[in-house]
Amino acid sequence: MANQELESAADQDAKPRSPQIYINGELFDKENAKVSVFDHGLLYGDGVFEGMRSYGGRIFRLDQHLQRLWESAKAIWLEIPMTPEAIAAAVRDTLRVNSIQDGYVRLVVTRGAGTLGLDPNKCSDPQVIIIADHITLYPDEFYEFGLEIVTVSTSRNHPAALSPRIKSLNYLNNILAKIEGLQAGCVEALMLNHRGEVAECTGDNIFLVAGGELLTPSIDAGILEGITRGAVIELAQAAGITVREIPLTKHDVYISDECFLTGSAAEIVPVVKVDSRQIGDGHPGAFTRDLTAQFRELTRS
Ligand code: PXG
After folding, report:
1. Hey, what domains does the chain have and what are their CATH numbers?
2. What's the pLDDT score for residue 14?
């Protein structure tokens, strides 16, 4: 019924005036898309989300995003009140209604409105929210000339306290690191884990190239298992490049030949300076450029 509503909305008009936001089977103008101030998503960051890219009106690796959403929800005892198939259809319809081909989709599931106490059992209806928007990419020069990043003092959440594999609505860990990065003049920041090893950036996974091999922290370093990360690993392996998921230190980063970040929003972005040290020859390297070209091919095909 919800999807029928969406279908007809999509058919009626290709370009609505106001962006249409999906909440629990209904579409709302952006101005009227609201949730309760008692929603535990707001009060406690109690909920999960996905950030996905669409290319030519299709979500890149939607199945993997939905799987990760369900895994995040399971980890926090949140029951998503729809099937993956129904959410997939709602995501596609929301893109279509908003006439977005190449864009960004934020899929959010909150715990729902409850009382002013932590108890999630007091929350009645989880809110399923889908926002389709145009993506604001990093400026072109970041891709052409590479990024400078810094290691920040905020370490990644200890996996025993809150697993970084959960893509939860509580992003304070990453936001604090992001603020530290911005204060140092960098749009991305490198976070270490509880062991002092390289983990990931605030919204991106990290890769190094050293001795012709591709190196990246493994999931048990306490990182988000990025969808883009997975795609890049597959592309590299298909190209015959050895990929090693191993513990990495800041030192490994400093002496690497190439460094790049991956994420749904950023795709693949080269890094040419870390903590004031030039990486490789200070320009995006050949592995990074090749993998970027292959990733473009994959997403646009
Ligand atoms: N690590 C963290 C902590 C992230 O939040 C990634 C890695 C990369 O994962 P994916 O699956 O996207 O390859 C993320 C994802 C945004 C935005 O609006 C952030 C992400 C994704 C999409 C948009 O800043 N982070």
Report:
1. 11-133 (3.30.470.10), 140-300 (3.20.10.10)
2. 53
Query: Which residue in 167, 178, 250, 273 is the catalytic one?
Result: 167
Q: What is the pLDDT of residues 60-79, one digit of tens each?
A: 999 999 999 999 999 999 99
pLDDT band at 113; cut points 50, 70, 90: very high
Q: CA 301, CA 281: separation in Å to the nearest integer?
A: 32
Strand pairing report for 198-201 and 267-274: unpaired
Tokens at 168, concatenated: 């939860």
* Residue 100 region by backbone torsions, left for phi larger than 0, else alpha for psi between -120 and 50, else beta: beta
Instruction: Output helix, strand, coil percentages for the chain, rounded to the nearest 5.
Output: 35, 25, 40
Of 222 and 17, which is predicted with more confidence? 222
Phi-psi region of 94 (alpha: psi -120 to 50; beta: other; left: phi over 0): alpha
- Among all chains, which residue has been given the structure tokens 């200890």? 158
Token pair, residue 51, equals 């950030």
Give the residue, by CA position, lying nearest to ligand 1 atom 15.
203
Q: Separation of 266 CA from ligand 1 center, angstroms?
A: 8
- Phi, psi dihedrals of residue 129, rounded to the nearest 5°: -120, 135
